[in-house]
Amino acid sequence: MVKKQRSLQRREESLSRDSIIEASVALLDSGGEDGLTFRALSERLSTGPGAIYWHIADKSDLLTAACDSVVARTIHEIVETTPEETIRAIAAGLFDAISTHPWIGSALTSAPGASPIVRIVESIGQQICQLHVPETHQWTAAGALMAFILGVSSQNAANGQLARRQNLDRTDFLEALSTTWSQLDPEEYPFARSVAGRIRDHDDRADFLAGIDLILMGIESMRLRSQA
Amino acid sequence: MVKKQRSLQRREESLSRDSIIEASVALLDSGGEDGLTFRALSERLSTGPGAIYWHIADKSDLLTAACDSVVARTIHEIVETTPEETIRAIAAGLFDAISTHPWIGSALTSAPGASPIVRIVESIGQQICQLHVPETHQWTAAGALMAFILGVSSQNAANGQLARRQNLDRTDFLEALSTTWSQLDPEEYPFARSVAGRIRDHDDRADFLAGIDLILMGIESMRLRSQA
DNA sequence: ACCTGAACACCGTTCAAGT
DNA sequence: ACCTGAACACCGTTCAAGT
């Protein structure tokens, strides 16, 4: 009879916004942006495509909600220490999350002002306040950090997706990119050629965190200057 | 007979990669990302949808090519002065270009390593070299600037598109965003609430350029530190 | 109130057939 | 070599009809 109760409960698990979002995240993770389809989704949830529209407005709503669920979890896991360290932790957490769920990158930039963005702004902004950045500069500092984090992370995720589409691993992909850049016209592309070698064996994540430190240094300079 | 020659010439203008890209940019500008369709494109070029595939690999190729044509034009227009000023000019030029052609933002992030990105890296990198940033840090500096420029510009463009979709102008949109943020839960979102007012009448472009200065300050700190 | 699934109006892409 | 346009295999979304 335990069995009976179990299967009864299971059948009572009706369609809900949360279960739809959970299934969407799974589909996006396994099949990328193209993997999320109302047909694939309804099949996975053993229902019809129309049923989903009772709980979700449209595909954009669905994508933002899926995005928000991952962002919320990521930010929730951050352990707060010093402001600088916490900002680095937020940055690294989002970088890794976007790396594992590459679809987040593009979903975030097409949902400005929506809840996932607000979560990120908030978590960064609270640390900016604790750094004693004057009120008039807080938005500049938080906005710059957020844009940088999302910008680099999305770019990195896009690299990974491109590599996967070409059936290469990360090393082979960077190798190929490095080779292409090193063969560019020396007259027109001296810089790209000169950094081509460095690209081959660089660590995107370390570079990213170095960029964060760069901005933190800039924020410190700004703070000092505005005090003078 | 002049007339005859003219119309003859005009008919001889057959389909070419360039004319396809030009038409694509026009469609993207007027109808956004959804406006670019092989059917709409072939109609505009008075041909069949299949004809386009003779000159272009697929839609992704088409989007990257359209993107590249705008980026190339933008970078070409930059007048070189001091390294810092030139970097600001590149940044402002790209910000404005992405503002006018909002579809560039998402197209750029989904085409990593492709020619438009290389153009941008190159133009920024050349200035970084002139700032006497040590070789080992050049890629970090150029990469950080690029990510920031593309990140903020895309975000800004996405804001504009969202506003347009809601039939609001920029002021009304920021007004609405500010109101939403000011009504957030004070316990959970103190920062977003506190900057809500500042968002209403801020200048995205000025904020963006302030962010660029922030990063330039960070690069200067990095350079000084690595010399010591 | 919530779900079903056929139907509608689209897509990108292919390909035999033309010139 | 280049173009045509019908056809294929999909989409997101709607909506009468069910429970």
TrEMBL record, chains A, B:
Gene source species: Granulicella rosea
Q: Which GO terms describe its molecular function?
A: DNA-binding transcription factor activity; transcription cis-regulatory region binding
Instruction: Explain the purpose of this protein.
Output: TetR is the repressor of the tetracycline resistance element; its N-terminal region forms a helix-turn-helix structure and binds DNA. Binding of tetracycline to TetR reduces the repressor affinity for the tetracycline resistance gene (tetA) promoter operator sites.
Task: Please give one Pfam family short name.
Answer: TetR_C_1
Q: What are the residue boundaries of the HTH tetR-type domain, all occurrences included? A: 14-74
Keywords from UniProt, A to Z, are: DNA-binding, Repressor, Transcription, Transcription regulation
Instruction: Write the protein's name.
Output: Transcriptional regulator, TetR family
Q: Which regions of the protein are recorded as binding DNA?
A: 37-56
Q: Which InterPro entries match?
A: Homeodomain-like_sf (IPR009057), HTH-type_TetR-like_transc_reg (IPR050109), HTH_TetR (IPR001647), Repressor_TetR_C (IPR004111), Tet_transcr_reg_TetR (IPR003012), Tet_transcr_reg_TetR-rel_C_sf (IPR036271)
The source's superkingdom equals Bacteria
Q: Which biological processes are named by the entry's GO terms?
A: negative regulation of DNA-templated transcription; response to antibiotic
| Presence of the UniProt keyword Transcription in the record | yes
